[in-house]
Automatic annotation (TrEMBL):
<feature type="transmembrane region" description="Helical">
    <location>
        <begin position="6"/>
        <end position="24"/>
    </location>
</feature>
<keyword id="KW-0812">Transmembrane</keyword>
<feature type="transmembrane region" description="Helical">
    <location>
        <begin position="254"/>
        <end position="275"/>
    </location>
</feature>
<keyword id="KW-0813">Transport</keyword>
<keyword id="KW-1003">Cell membrane</keyword>
<feature type="transmembrane region" description="Helical">
    <location>
        <begin position="195"/>
        <end position="215"/>
    </location>
</feature>
<keyword id="KW-1133">Transmembrane helix</keyword>
<dbReference type="InterPro" id="IPR038770">
    <property type="entry name" value="Na+/solute_symporter_sf"/>
</dbReference>
<protein>
    <submittedName>
        <fullName>AEC family transporter</fullName>
    </submittedName>
</protein>
<feature type="transmembrane region" description="Helical">
    <location>
        <begin position="129"/>
        <end position="151"/>
    </location>
</feature>
<feature type="transmembrane region" description="Helical">
    <location>
        <begin position="36"/>
        <end position="55"/>
    </location>
</feature>
<dbReference type="InterPro" id="IPR004776">
    <property type="entry name" value="Mem_transp_PIN-like"/>
</dbReference>
<feature type="transmembrane region" description="Helical">
    <location>
        <begin position="287"/>
        <end position="309"/>
    </location>
</feature>
<feature type="transmembrane region" description="Helical">
    <location>
        <begin position="67"/>
        <end position="88"/>
    </location>
</feature>
<comment type="similarity">
    <text>Belongs to the auxin efflux carrier (TC 2.A.69) family.</text>
</comment>
<feature type="transmembrane region" description="Helical">
    <location>
        <begin position="100"/>
        <end position="123"/>
    </location>
</feature>
<dbReference type="Pfam" id="PF03547">
    <property type="entry name" value="Mem_trans"/>
</dbReference>
């Protein structure tokens, strides 16, 4: 992977975030605006980028095996990140819910909003497909480990199981089944998936720009003393651990690069929504997410250079 391609992609992401921030001056991020962005991204753009990736790669036993490995590694990496954040914060934070928040910020990355589009640009359809499978592992971790920590031992119930069933997950299952049985939709639909997939990156970055501009600077006081821990783990320590771990394997190049890129992603964009749902500190979650994304624009290309892909 060429370093200039990485820098170019990150620069485009930064520009699109800036455009979203500028647009927010005329269109504030209200509840309706936020729901519209999330609906378009998760219910239209993300499923289409997944389906587009599936129908542009040659599906075989090797690819299916690789996808199962990526899913398993995704869950392991996410849980390791959460544990590092939870364990590290236990030395200076007594509140278990606050430790859970820091663990989630440290472990769960922005693998959908930023990771899938970035892998699609840098690694092509196969990289985008692996990135989507990695994101499915993140979703699984969110609605199992993360929810369990936030609910502090309460039963999650049927609602948690239903939340795991969403359109991106359905797109992965349906697309893989069609591909496995060598069934392809008409060219018209493949072209439609390709065009709608192109909306994923701009819409996601515009939303992040809106989110950043909607934050209150005064909330920084709540997190400034603990902010360094989850962000250091998420943006530096966890990617290095993953890179070192994969360095001892003979894993396929595109597959390993996708996993490392996804491990580098800044904190999950929907952290604040997750925290709000389970009575945690939603405002602090949003602030840590925004700072993580801004820092990620610098750390992602630096970390790619560090792990030796140039």
């Amino acid at each position: 992977m060429e370093q200039m391609a990485v820098v170019s992609s990150i620069s485009l992401i930064a520009i699109m975030i800036a455009i979203g921030a500028i647009l927010s001056r005329w269109t504030p991020l209200t509840g309706d605006t936020q729901r519209m962005f999330i609906s378009l991204i998760f219910n239209v753009a993300m499923p289409c980028i997944i389906l587009s990736s599936i129908f542009h790669v040659e599906m075989d036993d090797r690819l299916f095996k690789n996808m199962m490995v990526v899913f398993a590694l995704s869950v392991i990496i996410n849980v390791v990140g959460i544990f590092l954040g939870w364990f590290g914060s236990s030395f200076f934070i007594e509140d278990r819910l606050r430790r859970a928040e820091i663990g989630i910020v440290a472990g769960l990355g922005n693998t959908a909003f930023i990771g899938i589009p970035l892998c699609a640009v840098l690694l092509g359809p196969e990289g985008a497909l692996y990135a989507a499978i990695f994101d499915a592992g993140v979703d699984f971790t969110i609605w199992t480990v993360a929810v369990m920590l936030l609910q502090r031992g309460k039963q999650s119930g049927i609602g948690t199981l239903k939340a795991m069933i969403n359109l991106p997950i359905i797109a992965i299952v349906v697309g893989l089944l069609l591909s496995y049985f060598q069934l392809r939709p008409p060219v018209l639909f493949i072209d439609l998936f390709d065009r709608l997939a192109a909306l994923a990156a701009p819409l996601a970055m515009f939303y992040i720009g809106f989110l950043i501009m909607n934050l209150k600077v005064t909330n920084f006081e709540k997190v400034k003393k603990t902010l360094w821990l989850p962000l250091t783990i998420k943006l530096i320590i966890l990617p290095l651990i993953v890179a070192l771990m994969l360095g001892f394997t003979a894993m396929d190049g595109t597959m390993s690069q996708t996993i490392i890129i996804q491990a580098m992603m800044p904190t999950l964009t929907l952290t604040s929504v997750l925290f709000a749902k389970y009575s945690a500190d939603a405002e602090s979650g949003a602030l840590m997410t925004a700072i993580s994304i801004l820092l990620g624009l610098v750390t992602i290309p630096v970390m790619i250079f560090v792990v030796g892909w140039v």
